[in-house]
Amino acid sequence: MKSLWKKLALAAAVIGASFGARAEGSDAPKPLPQREKVIVAMTAKVEAYIPMLLADRMGEFDKENIDIEYTFAKSSDGIVLLSTGRADVLGGQPSAAIFNAIASGADIRVVAPLFVQSPGSKQGIWANNAFLNGRKFTVDLFKDQTVASAIGLGSTASYFLQTELEKVGLSLKDVKFQTMASADILVALENGAVNFGYLIDSIWQKADESKVSLAFVQGPEMSAGSWSFGPRLLKERRDVGEAVMRALVRTTRTYLQGDYHANPAVMKIMLEELQLPEETLKKGVSLTFDPNLYMPADLAARLQKTYALIPEVLSYTELMPEDRVVDQGFIAAAGIPIPAK
């Protein structure tokens, strides 16, 4: 399954392919009988969330008889909003906090990925050049250092960092994490407040490479984030959740395959929604969005095993099965075959 995910991601990145797995008309609009409001929580308007923003601006939600309302909150607050029904959709990461909420009984499920790493992207761990002091980066330099990230230890960045640390006999126990806003991480890196930090797409493009350098990028084998649904869309109004997914699938397939930065209509909306200078967006590369919205294989198992390396990151001891964390029924309702395990 891991190899299948890699093949799908690479195919989408190279040719922006439209996979033949889509059933005829399955993602076509099926307007809800009455207008419905869906509240979407996210940390900020960044390119990772462009499928949602674009679906809204391109009228895909209107076709489903849906109005989108956005609320902005830090990751931990977004999970509270989702679990208590004050938000219906959460854009973010399948963090340890998400797993802990599910384990405690919250009606939350991960339903679709955001994007996978594009070949030209430099999203990943960056280092302060003054700390390197002319040295070539090596993984052993992480020992006893602090890494700044938006979520901290219980984030998908932990998985990629652990993968690298294992190569030199280290683990997450050998580093510390400091949580700060994504934009603040770059500032902290450049002024030497931290020596390592995780820079996401739309942030690393602003980096002054005389002050900071890329240490390593995250691999393409796992989504850089996810969409999660809360109790209303999972249970009370699953039909609304299916309508949201149809709109996301259509938008991803129609507008976000290949180099969508070259599409003037898409770029115009991105400039307006993301509030970034045009030169910053043009400096970045188009993200890779899987047209089938498949979640990476064994997502729950791999992340839980990583988070469990550090005591008290997870609030439970027995790892949850995949279907307790991920609900692929929404993409199935959009006519996308679920890969065999």
Structure description:
The structure is a single chain. The termini are close together. The protein is built from 15 helices and 10 strands. It is globular and about 65 Å long. It has a 5-stranded mixed beta sheet. It has a 5-stranded mixed beta sheet with strand order 7-6-8-5-9. Helices cover 37% and strands 15% of the residues. It has helices spanning 2-15, 50-57, 60-63, 75-83, 96-103, 129-132, 156-165, 182-191, 231-236, 238-255, 264-274, 278-283, 299-307, 322-325, 329-333; strands at residues 36-42, 66-72, 89-92, 109-113, 124-128, 146-149, 176-179, 196-199, 212-217, 226-229. The model is unreliable at 1-25 (pLDDT under 50). By secondary structure, it is of the alpha/beta class.
Number of helices: 15
Indicate the mean pLDDT: 86
What about the largest sheet? 5 strands, mixed
Q: How would you classify the helix and strand content by structural class?
A: alpha/beta
Low-confidence stretches: 1-25
**What is the number of strand segments?**
10
Proportion of residues in extended strands: 5-15%
SSE order, one letter for each helix or strand: HEHHEHEHEEHEHEHEEEHHHHHHH
Q: What is the 3D form?
A: globular
Rg over CA atoms: 19 Å
How far apart, in Å, are the first and last alpha carbons? Answer: 7 Å
Strand order of the largest sheet: 2-1-3-10-4
Fraction of residues in helices?
Answer: 25-40%
Brief overview:
With 341 residues, this protein is α/β, with parallel strands linked by helices. The chain has helices at 2-15, 50-57, 60-63, 75-83, 96-103, 129-132, 156-165, 182-191, 231-236, 238-255, 264-274, 278-283, 299-307, 322-325, 329-333, and strands spanning 36-42, 66-72, 89-92, 109-113, 124-128, 146-149, 176-179, 196-199, 212-217, 226-229.
